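Example record

One chain of 399 residues, shown exactly as stored in the release files.
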Amino acid sequence: MRLTPDQQAMLDGQYGYAVRKAMEILAALGEIYGAEDMVPISSVQIAGVSYDNLGEAGLSFLAEMAAGGGQVRVLTTLNPAGMDVDNWQALGIDPDFAAQQQRVINAFARMGVITTCTCTPYLSGNLPLYGQHIAWAESSAVCYANSVLGARTNREGGPSALAAALTGFTPAYGLHLPANRRPTLTVQVEVPLNSPADFGALGRCIGEQIEATGQKHIPYITGVAAASLEELKSFCASLATYGGAALFHMAGVTPEAALFQPPPTGFSVAQTALDAARHALSDADAAEVDFVSLGCPHLTIAEIARLAQLLAGKQVKKTFWITTSRPVKHLADRMGYTRIIEASGATFAVDTCCVVAPIKGRFTALATDSAKACYYACSKNKMKTLFLPFDEVVAEALR
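Predicted structure tokens for this chain:
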């Protein structure tokens, strides 16, 4: 792989230990994937923030990079942590875990990372432009950046994302190359979609069919008349979770779709297939639900406004987490939504979510509108799930 003189100087250690280590990681990654050179990036989003996932080994690596003089060279934000940094006690987080999680966040902060812990960085100031190269790690955010924004990123691991942040470069392979962004199959949607939950079920339906092919297809989706930010957020999370997809094109919706013709082969999604996907996301009865959560991916201010409207003057009967980013929570505070929601007994879980928080064993069944949350509730936290549209999730919390 060709390196510029500046990149070679990084590899030779002229910028210190952390930068040398970072460039070693990137150079090795580039050699593995056959990259010819590196591209400059405009932003980074780092996953692997929860101490529940990192453990002491991951924390030691971060501390080593911070002690080695590591400082980010581009705008860099974090994925959700394992707790609400300011209000972890109210979420039942163990004090020992909280202390370790704070060490993780402090290590990132020492390197200049903006510690906004969110899976929707595009709602909190990390908003790349069309065609820009970035190095993002969280699966739903990667899918959103590539597909909805038209930026260019592979799905980075935590170490490679940090390495890109410390150097300002990433190897030019995969979805950084125009030739690799072409759609490879067509998906004709033959059913109306009316909510983010519908888009979540569609993501599972398409994702599982792509997985069944044994290939990493890029779908070209037709038949969707329109899609909101919230619906696309839900779809990206589900498609990435169930299909491993980092990019899709949606005719008339996403910016790169107009560059391509629909591939000649593919499949259609009929009502029966969408209904089956919805059904597969639920295995709990309403009577079993003891945990309710909205915000996977993190809620927008519009979703929080709707939640306040639904909860005004009412009292929830079950543990109800509202997960969002801290900047969006600040907007909710100013608009009075927080006061209404918290008066109902629901709890804001800022900086975290039901996927990465250490909640295994605390609950029996989760009610949510997130197909991604259903997947991890089952696979990681061994909970049953009840998949419902947004308003019905709120109704379940009130029962």
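Notes: The longest strand covers residues 319-324.
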